[in-house]
Amino acid sequence: MNTITEHIEKFKYAIHDLYKAYKFTHFSLYHLRDFYHKNKLDENINSFTIEDLAFEIKIEYTEHEIEQAREDGYYQRILAGNTIALIYNLWEDEFRFKISKCLGYSGTGRDKIMNDFFGDLGKIRHSITHNRFNRTSNIDNLVKLHYLFRDNTFILDSITVHEIIEKTLLELEIIKKQDHKQLD
Question: Is the confidence at residue 184, as pLDDT, over 60?
Fold first, then answer.
């Protein structure tokens, strides 16, 4: 039987893998934009094309679209938002249930495992996925991550993702050290 500690460690590994994938993609976009600008000067090009021969897909990006790969650009916001939503999904769809089982809760038991940080991530995920990265009424009820909204828009950049990763790992350590020791 898996213990709470084992599930939290597996969750932490999943978070690390997710963060590696995010950073790889983030830097790929950043360097793709840089590559475009360097070659634009040499070859006087006005667009950038990515072609996948295996699937016969050809996507052309305009200069404006390439600019959206910058740190605060649209494509980076999508990556950051999806990463944050996936962190919450891992909690809600897998690990919250497993931890509740370790604690002996019947059924899904998820409603018995309450956590302000993950509750905030759920509200943020809802804002990202259902309101196109804009504030929802639940954002006013954030407990630990209220500072991530400036006006009506969520601050989504690599610094925010890094901070959320760090806070997630810290929160998992806190959960692990709570009064669940007797069950490990």
Answer: no
CA distance 157 to 15: 17
- To which H or E segment does residue 149 belong? strand 149-150
Query: Considering Cα of 105, then 110, then 116, then 121, what sign does the dihedral take?
Result: positive
Nearest of 144, 97, 94, 138 to residue 118 by alpha carbon: 144
Contacts for 95-100: CB closer than 8 Å, 24+ residues apart:
95/7, 95/8, 95/10, 95/11, 98/2, 98/7, 99/4, 99/7, 99/8, 99/175
Q: Dump pLDDT digits (tens) for 25-77.
A: 988 888 888 877 777 756 656 667 888 899 999 988 888 888 888 888 899 89
The three-point CA angle 68-90-138 to 5° equals 70
- Please check whether residue 150 is in contact with residue 123, taking contact to mean a CB–CB distance below 8 angstroms: no
- Mind listing the pLDDT tens digit for each residue in 106-143? 766 566 788 999 999 999 999 889 988 888 888 889 99
Averaged pLDDT, 84-90: 96
Element (H, E) at 77: helix 74-90
Beta bridge partners of 61: 48
Strand, coil or helix: what is 69? coil
> What residues does each domain of the chain span?
4-183
